[in-house]
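Following up on my earlier thread - several people asked me to post the actual chain instead of describing it. Fair enough. Here it is, all 248 residues.
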Amino acid sequence: MNSLEERHLLKEKYAGERTPEYLADCSRISAGEPTAYVIGTQPFLNITVDLSERPHIPRGETEFWTEYVIAMMQKDIRTSLSCLDIFAGSGCIGLAILSNVPKASVDFADIDSRCIKQIEKNLEFIGGISSRARSIRSDIFCNIEDRYDYILANPPYIALRHIKRVESSVLTFEPHQALFGGETGLDVIRTFLMHASKHLHPRGRIFMEFDDTQHATLEILVKTLPYTTSRFFLDQYGLWRFVELAVA
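Reply from S.P.:
Thanks for posting it. Predicted structure:
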C-alpha cells in the first residue's frame, strides 16, 4: 500500500481519523484488494458511484469518452433523448448522463443480477434521477426491444491470450464476466455490433469502448456491418479507446 492510497482511504472513508477499522482496511489494500472496493465508492466525473455489490470498477478511460458523449448530448437539439447503457456494470455511464443531461432517459442493461442490484442502489444513492431510468437484466440484446438515440457500451474486451498482462488485483477481485471477451477479446463485441444497429433511432449514435490492440480489426469489422459512419478516437493517454457508429 502506498502513501497516496493511504491518504485517499483516510480522507474518503474515515474523515482523517486513524481508527482500528482504518488500520484493518489498510491491511486489505496491502493484501491487494482494490482501494475502490475497500472505500466502497468511486468518483466518476461529477458523481460518486457506489460499489457495494463489487461490479467492475469504473476507469478513467471510460470517464474520458463519457464526458465527450455528455457534451454531445448537451448540444443535441432534440427535446428528449433515449439512451441505453449496455454492459452497464455499476451504471456509471448512464448515471453520469442522467445527472448531467436532464432531457435524457436511460435504460441500464446487464447480464449479471448483482449489477442490476448495484444500479438500483446507485439510482437511490445519487437521488433525483430514478424517474428517468429503467434496469433490464439482459444477455446483450436478448431482453431489449426498444430503439434508442444513444447506445453506450463498455463490453468485456480483454483478450484471454493477454491474461498475464492483467494486474493480479484485477484478476483476484473484479468480476471476470465484465472483463474478458474470449481469446481475442472480440467475442462479445462482435455479437453486440451485429445487433446494435437494429436498436437505433434515425440519427442515433453508438459509442463503444475497446482495447487499443483491437483498433485495426474493428475498422475492418464495422465495414462489413450496416454502419454508414464510423469514427475512432484516442483516449487521454494517446491510445485507441472508443468508436462512434451510426446508420443512415
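The chain has one domain: 53-246. That should answer part of your original question.
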